[in-house]
């Protein structure tokens, strides 16, 4: 009788171990989730004016009223590695290599820390420069010159 109880207990332990292993190995993280993690990391970098996404993505953002944190980010993943492409618009006057380097570091650290994936590449594509600041400064300078006269 005792032997049957021990066998049942051993089977229960084995089943529990298998369930734990299956649960750990059965976790699937979507490309969209990785893109959002990367998007949040990019948005924290000083010198990034905005993310550069597709025209359709921009319309969706306007209609829904929600900011799409995955805008401008493309993720390719395999079993436990990821390659990430980031498309951004930088602020006028910022040093582009420094901004790109900071984006690479933050995205890699965030994605690896939250998902456990090894980030092999973070490719930063500069799609444009935001010159609205220059226009505002020029307008203020013109106004101050007009006031002096």
Describe this entry's structure for a reader.
This protein has 149 residues and is of the alpha+beta class. The chain has one domain: Cation efflux protein, cytoplasmic domain (Alpha-Beta Plaits, 2-Layer Sandwich), CATH 3.30.70. It is 56% helix and 22% strand. The chain has 5 helices and 4 strands; from the N terminus they run ααβαββαβα. It has helices at 2-25, 31-43, 55-64, 96-115, 132-148; strands at 48-51, 73-77, 81-91, 118-130. Strands 1, 2, 3 and 4 form a 4-stranded mixed beta sheet that branches. Strand 3, helix 4 (96-115) and strand 4 form a beta-alpha-beta unit. Helix 2 (31-43) packs across helix 4 (96-115). The protein is elongated and about 70 Å long. Mean pLDDT is 77; it is low at 4-24 and 55-61.
Distance between the termini: 106 Å
Q: Per DSSP, what share of the residues sits in E-state strands of 2 or more residues?
A: 15-25%
Shape: elongated
Q: Which sequence of SSEs, written as H and E, runs from N to C?
A: HHEHEEHEH
Discrete helix count: 5
Structural class: alpha+beta
The low-pLDDT segments are: 4-24, 55-61
Estimated helix fraction: 55-70%
Number of separate structural domains = 1
Proper CATH architecture: 2-Layer Sandwich
Largest sheet: 4 strands, mixed
CATH first level: Alpha Beta
**Count of beta strands:** 4
The average pLDDT score comes to: 77
At the fold tier of CATH, the topology name is: Alpha-Beta Plaits
Could you give me the name of the CATH homologous superfamily?
Cation efflux protein, cytoplasmic domain
């Amino acid at each position: 009788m005792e032997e049957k109880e021990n066998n049942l207990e051993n089977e229960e332990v084995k089943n529990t171990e298998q369930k734990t292993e299956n649960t750990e190995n059965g976790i699937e993280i979507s490309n969209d989730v990785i893109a959002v993690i990367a998007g949040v990391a990019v948005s924290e970098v000083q010198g990034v004016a905005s993310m550069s996404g597709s025209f359709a993505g921009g319309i969706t953002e306007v209609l829904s009223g929600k900011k799409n944190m995955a805008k401008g980010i493309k993720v390719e993943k395999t079993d436990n590695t990821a390659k990430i492409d980031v498309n951004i618009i930088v602020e006028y006057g910022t040093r582009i290599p420094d901004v790109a380097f900071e984006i690479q570091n933050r995205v890699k650290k965030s994605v690896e820390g939250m998902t456990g994936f090894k980030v092999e590449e973070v490719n930063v594509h500069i799609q444009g420069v935001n010159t609205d600041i220059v226009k505002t400064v020029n307008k203020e300078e013109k106004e101050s010159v007009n006031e002096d006269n």
